[in-house]
Amino acid sequence: MATPIKIGIVGCAGRMGRMLIQEVLATKDAALAAGSEQPGAHIGEDMGTLVGAAPTNVRVVADAGAVFAASSVVIDFTAPAALPAHTKLAAATGKALIVGTTGLGDGHIAALKDAAKRTVIVQAANFSLGVNVLLSLTEKLAFTLGPEYDIEVLEMHHRHKVDAPSGTALALGASAARGRGKKLNEVWRKVRDGQVGARPAGEIGFATLRGGDVFGDHTVIFAGEGERVEVSHKASSRSNFARGAVRAAMWSKGKESGFYSMRDVLGL
Ligand code: NAD
Question: Whose CA is closest to 201, among 155, 146, 137?
Answer without folding.
Answer: 146
